[in-house]
Amino acid sequence: MKPVERKIYLASKSPRRRELLRQIGIEFEILQLRDHTARGPDVSEIVHPDEFPEDYVARVSDEKALFAWQTMQKRRLPVRPVLAADTTVVIDGKILGKPANAREAMEMMRQLSGRTHQVITSISLYHLQQTWQSTQTSDVTFNDLSEQTIARYCATHEPYDKAGGYGIQGLAAVFIRHIAGSYSGIMGLPLFETTQLLQEAGIRPL
Question: For the chain, how many structural domains are there in total?
Answer without folding.
Answer: 1
